[in-house]
Amino acid sequence: MIAKLSLLAIFGIAMAHLEGVVVVYLRKALGLLDSESNKESIEKFPERYLKIEMTREAATIIMLAVIAYLVGGSWIEKGVFFLWTFAFWDLFYYLSLYILIKWPPKLTTIDVLFLIPKPWIAPVWFPIGFSSLTIVIIAILAMMGIFEL
Fold first, then answer.
1. What's the confidence (pLDDT) of residue 46?
2. Is the pLDDT assigned to residue 81 strictly greater than 60?
Protein backbone atom coordinates (compact mmCIF):
# COMPACT_ATOMS: atom_id res chain seq x y z
CA MET A 1 0.00 0.00 0.00
CA ILE A 2 2.67 2.51 1.01
CA ALA A 3 4.70 1.66 -2.09
CA LYS A 4 1.74 2.29 -4.43
CA LEU A 5 0.80 5.55 -2.74
CA SER A 6 4.43 6.69 -2.75
CA LEU A 7 4.92 5.89 -6.43
CA LEU A 8 1.64 7.56 -7.36
CA ALA A 9 2.69 10.64 -5.38
CA ILE A 10 6.01 10.71 -7.26
CA PHE A 11 4.14 10.32 -10.57
CA GLY A 12 1.82 13.21 -9.63
CA ILE A 13 4.74 15.43 -8.60
CA ALA A 14 6.68 14.72 -11.81
CA MET A 15 3.60 15.34 -13.92
CA ALA A 16 2.97 18.59 -12.02
CA HIS A 17 6.45 19.84 -12.77
CA LEU A 18 6.12 18.92 -16.44
CA GLU A 19 2.86 20.87 -16.66
CA GLY A 20 4.38 23.78 -14.77
CA VAL A 21 7.21 23.96 -17.30
CA VAL A 22 4.69 23.82 -20.17
CA VAL A 23 2.74 26.71 -18.65
CA VAL A 24 5.92 28.77 -18.21
CA TYR A 25 6.83 28.24 -21.87
CA LEU A 26 3.26 28.95 -22.96
CA ARG A 27 3.17 32.20 -21.02
CA LYS A 28 6.51 33.25 -22.55
CA ALA A 29 5.42 32.28 -26.08
CA LEU A 30 2.26 34.33 -25.73
CA GLY A 31 4.08 37.31 -24.22
CA LEU A 32 2.40 37.11 -20.81
CA LEU A 33 4.13 38.50 -17.74
CA ASP A 34 5.21 36.02 -15.07
CA SER A 35 3.41 38.04 -12.42
CA GLU A 36 0.18 38.34 -14.39
CA SER A 37 -2.91 36.63 -13.01
CA ASN A 38 -4.07 33.62 -15.01
CA LYS A 39 -7.55 35.13 -14.96
CA GLU A 40 -6.19 38.21 -16.74
CA SER A 41 -4.02 36.18 -19.09
CA ILE A 42 -6.88 33.90 -20.17
CA GLU A 43 -8.62 36.98 -21.54
CA LYS A 44 -5.60 37.58 -23.79
CA PHE A 45 -5.41 34.01 -25.10
CA PRO A 46 -6.42 33.61 -28.72
CA GLU A 47 -9.48 31.32 -29.00
CA ARG A 48 -7.44 28.71 -30.89
CA TYR A 49 -4.94 28.39 -28.04
CA LEU A 50 -7.71 28.15 -25.46
CA LYS A 51 -9.07 25.13 -27.32
CA ILE A 52 -5.59 23.62 -27.49
CA GLU A 53 -5.17 24.24 -23.76
CA MET A 54 -8.47 22.46 -23.13
CA THR A 55 -7.09 19.38 -24.89
CA ARG A 56 -4.01 19.50 -22.64
CA GLU A 57 -6.28 19.60 -19.60
CA ALA A 58 -8.31 16.68 -20.92
CA ALA A 59 -5.10 14.73 -21.55
CA THR A 60 -4.00 15.42 -17.97
CA ILE A 61 -7.22 14.01 -16.53
CA ILE A 62 -7.01 10.99 -18.85
CA MET A 63 -3.43 10.27 -17.74
CA LEU A 64 -4.42 10.50 -14.08
CA ALA A 65 -7.44 8.24 -14.66
CA VAL A 66 -5.42 5.66 -16.62
CA ILE A 67 -2.69 5.36 -13.99
CA ALA A 68 -5.35 4.97 -11.27
CA TYR A 69 -7.14 2.35 -13.35
CA LEU A 70 -3.95 0.38 -13.94
CA VAL A 71 -2.81 0.48 -10.30
CA GLY A 72 -6.15 0.01 -8.51
CA GLY A 73 -7.91 -3.30 -8.08
CA SER A 74 -11.45 -2.38 -7.11
CA TRP A 75 -13.35 0.68 -8.29
CA ILE A 76 -12.95 2.19 -4.82
CA GLU A 77 -9.17 1.76 -5.07
CA LYS A 78 -9.15 3.26 -8.55
CA GLY A 79 -11.10 6.28 -7.26
CA VAL A 80 -8.85 6.71 -4.24
CA PHE A 81 -5.72 6.42 -6.38
CA PHE A 82 -7.11 8.96 -8.86
CA LEU A 83 -7.87 11.46 -6.08
CA TRP A 84 -4.49 10.84 -4.42
CA THR A 85 -2.51 11.34 -7.62
CA PHE A 86 -4.67 14.31 -8.68
CA ALA A 87 -4.06 15.96 -5.30
CA PHE A 88 -0.27 15.60 -5.57
CA TRP A 89 -0.35 16.79 -9.17
CA ASP A 90 -2.45 19.86 -8.31
CA LEU A 91 -0.51 20.81 -5.19
CA PHE A 92 2.90 20.45 -6.80
CA TYR A 93 1.80 22.20 -9.98
CA TYR A 94 1.50 25.39 -7.95
CA LEU A 95 4.76 24.71 -6.14
CA SER A 96 6.51 24.17 -9.47
CA LEU A 97 5.15 27.44 -10.86
CA TYR A 98 6.23 29.25 -7.74
CA ILE A 99 9.76 27.82 -7.93
CA LEU A 100 10.05 28.58 -11.67
CA ILE A 101 8.48 32.06 -11.93
CA LYS A 102 7.41 33.02 -8.38
CA TRP A 103 3.75 32.56 -9.32
CA PRO A 104 1.35 32.77 -7.61
CA PRO A 105 2.70 35.67 -5.58
CA LYS A 106 0.20 34.93 -2.78
CA LEU A 107 -2.46 32.37 -1.92
CA THR A 108 -5.26 34.83 -2.58
CA THR A 109 -4.17 35.23 -6.23
CA ILE A 110 -7.07 34.41 -8.54
CA ASP A 111 -6.43 31.53 -10.94
CA VAL A 112 -8.22 29.72 -13.73
CA LEU A 113 -8.30 26.21 -12.28
CA PHE A 114 -9.71 24.45 -15.34
CA LEU A 115 -11.18 25.45 -18.66
CA ILE A 116 -13.42 22.37 -19.06
CA PRO A 117 -16.35 22.62 -19.53
CA LYS A 118 -16.02 26.35 -18.85
CA PRO A 119 -13.43 28.35 -16.86
CA TRP A 120 -13.35 27.56 -13.13
CA ILE A 121 -12.01 30.62 -11.35
CA ALA A 122 -10.98 30.73 -7.69
CA PRO A 123 -8.19 31.92 -5.43
CA VAL A 124 -5.14 29.66 -5.39
CA TRP A 125 -5.69 28.73 -1.75
CA PHE A 126 -8.79 26.74 -2.77
CA PRO A 127 -7.13 24.02 -4.89
CA ILE A 128 -4.10 23.96 -2.58
CA GLY A 129 -6.36 23.50 0.46
CA PHE A 130 -8.56 20.92 -1.25
CA SER A 131 -5.57 18.92 -2.48
CA SER A 132 -3.83 19.05 0.90
CA LEU A 133 -7.00 17.93 2.65
CA THR A 134 -7.46 15.08 0.15
CA ILE A 135 -3.92 13.84 0.80
CA VAL A 136 -4.35 14.01 4.58
CA ILE A 137 -7.73 12.23 4.56
CA ILE A 138 -6.56 9.42 2.25
CA ALA A 139 -3.36 8.95 4.29
CA ILE A 140 -5.33 8.77 7.56
CA LEU A 141 -7.89 6.35 6.11
CA ALA A 142 -5.11 4.17 4.70
CA MET A 143 -3.28 4.11 8.05
CA MET A 144 -6.51 3.22 9.83
CA GLY A 145 -7.08 0.37 7.39
CA ILE A 146 -10.48 1.75 6.34
CA PHE A 147 -9.82 0.47 2.85
CA GLU A 148 -7.33 -2.07 1.63
CA LEU A 149 -4.96 -0.63 -0.91
1. 82
2. yes
